[in-house]
Amino acid sequence: MKNIWILLLAVVLVASMSLTLTSCKEEAAEEVVEEAAEEVVEEAAEEVVAEEKEVYYWVSQFKNHPLFVGEDQVGAKMAADELGVEVEFIGPDEIDMPAFIAAIEQTISLNAAGVMVVGWDRALAEAIDTVYDAGIPIITVDADIPSKRMAFVGSSWYDQGFMQATYMGPLINGQGKVALMGIIGAANTNEATQGFTNYMAANYPDVEVIGPYDDEASNEKAAQVTADLIIADPDIVGFGGFDSSSGPGIAQAVKEADKVGEIIVTCVDIGEQHLNLVKEGVISAAVGQKRIFFGYYGLKILYDINHNGIEFTPNDKAAGITNVPQNVYTGFIVATPENVDTLLETLE
Asked: What is the pTM of this model?
């Protein structure tokens, strides 16, 4: 509002100056003054436009994790630039569920144009519903949460586990123990574990799946847990990892135990560290999620909810109908020794 008054004042200034400077001798001075006043008008107009930009929010715990900063948030920024809106990234810097929930609910007082929430845990459902009930479009990304969310953008964590098992099974000759690792209590770890276990039970019944074990989303913790398991149980022939830190941590312990080639490793994500470990032969398959799509299409869907103008009934919200696709499946990229060089080239 303040900027609008500035703009009106600047316009009045230009008009009054034009009436005052009327003589021919003052023509040059008038032109200079008018140009200066016009600059004030333009600057004020730009501020008004900036003030009116919609602001969307991406919310997660561990918000500054390199995985999020390097992929999810990059995609959201790309979409924001294309659409002429703003996007902010909020949430705690560590695993802190109460602070995460508070950050979701904070978007109401921030007058968010829309909110996307990384679906870490079903405990987020109530906060998601609260934002929806406040009239703010809200979706989940990465992992879905049963709630009033209007759409989900991501890959299936069940399929993530299933996919890793399809690579693991043949490489361990369909027998032995495989230990799984991730974040205990997280919905994505639970779903991936189920997918992995179901595939092995149906296709390699002689494989015993143990875990999941908690790596706390830490490379160091994943390495420690893996090292302890290798010492405690010599029958382990493989490890599967379900968070971004799992693969590098598992790989470190396998290398230090001099078990490369003896113990098979599969994991989620295809960051540079993961790809280099595939190149070294320590990780046999890294299942990437095309995470840049999460932020990119997540923001575009939120924008569409506000602007596409599609209506199926006179009151879609009351009828429980959304005006966008409710599930956007982004698929996987699997890094293996056969294609890792091509994937590494994209990082150069």
From this structure: 0.79
